[in-house]
TrEMBL record:
Annotated Gene Ontology cellular component terms: cytosol; Golgi apparatus
Record-linked Pfam families: ChaC (PF04752)
Keywords tagged on the record: Apoptosis, Cytoplasm, Golgi apparatus, Lyase, Neurogenesis, Notch signaling pathway, Unfolded protein response
Function per UniProt: Catalyzes the cleavage of glutathione into 5-oxo-L-proline and a Cys-Gly dipeptide. Acts specifically on glutathione, but not on other gamma-glutamyl peptides. Glutathione depletion is an important factor for apoptosis initiation and execution. Acts as a pro-apoptotic component of the unfolded protein response pathway by mediating the pro-apoptotic effects of the ATF4-ATF3-DDIT3/CHOP cascade.
Record-given protein name: Gamma-glutamylcyclotransferase
Gene3D superfamilies assigned to the protein according to its UniProt record, in alphabetical order: Gamma-glutamyl cyclotransferase-like (3.10.490.10)
Assigned EC number: 4.3.2.7
InterPro entries found in the cross-reference section: ChaC, GGCT-like, GGCT-like_sf
Gene Ontology biological process terms, A to Z: apoptotic process; glutathione catabolic process; nervous system development; Notch signaling pathway; response to unfolded protein
First-tier enzyme category under EC: lyase
Originating species: Astatotilapia calliptera
Catalytic activity of the protein: glutathione = L-cysteinylglycine + 5-oxo-L-proline
Length: 196
């Protein structure tokens, strides 16, 4: 889906973030809402050789994997007017050119029982992407994250900020994949510091 196809005939658009967008959108928006999408689970199965890693040691960042029984919590940002085109240009570089993600429209359910779902754009890295790393154990992923660094910063920062978002904004949600990788990565970092 190309940006011009996404905005054709629209005056506003919701963009759903489930990774670094939840704590670092870096584009202007009208408002944001915490909520979830259905039919997907968040996994650290995508490689990053730019923002959080490099070609020799790619970092691990999240993507969405289809799973009918799962939900993924995050933040949706509403962009309107000139923000619409500006945000999509920015995200095209950040998520598509540098990250290898594709776009899809999904139903976003804002937190709270009285709010109807809205259509939102989401960026997803698929297994046919050359940066896609696929499944691994929490220990393997945590160790890779603990040792990776890219142009935007350490991969551990990405992991810790995402875990902190979930604890502060979605305290009722238990993301076992995220929290087990966080525990493993923190243990690995403590061993690395102790060894110095």
């Amino acid at each position: 889906m190309k940006p011009q196809d996404i905005i054709a005939g629209k005056t506003s658009l919701w963009i759903f973030g489930y990774g670094s967008l939840v704590w670092k959108p870096d584009f202007k928006y009208q408002r944001s809402k915490v909520g979830y999408i259905q039919g997907y689970k968040r996994r650290f199965w995508h490689g990053d050789n730019f923002h959080r890693g490099n070609d020799e040691l790619p970092g691990r960042v999240v993507t969405l994997i289809e799973d009918d029984d799962e939900t993924t919590w995050g933040v949706a940002f509403e962009v309107a007017g000139s923000q619409l085109e500006e945000s999509l240009k920015y995200l095209n570089v950040r998520e598509t050119v540098c990250g290898g993600y594709m776009t899809k429209m999904v139903d976003f359910f804002p937190e709270g029982n009285d709010q109807p779902p809205v259509q939102a754009l989401v960026y997803i890295a698929t297994s046919d992407n050359p940066l896609y790393l696929g499944p691994a154990t929490s220990e393997e992923i945590g160790a890779q994250i603990a040792m990776s660094r890219g142009k935007t910063g350490h991969n551990l920062e990405y992991l810790l900020r995402l875990a902190e978002f979930m604890r502060s904004s979605c305290p009722h949600v238990e993301d076992h994949h995220l929290f087990s990788i966080e525990a493993t990565a923190l243990t690995m970092v403590s061993y690395l510091f102790a060894a110095q």
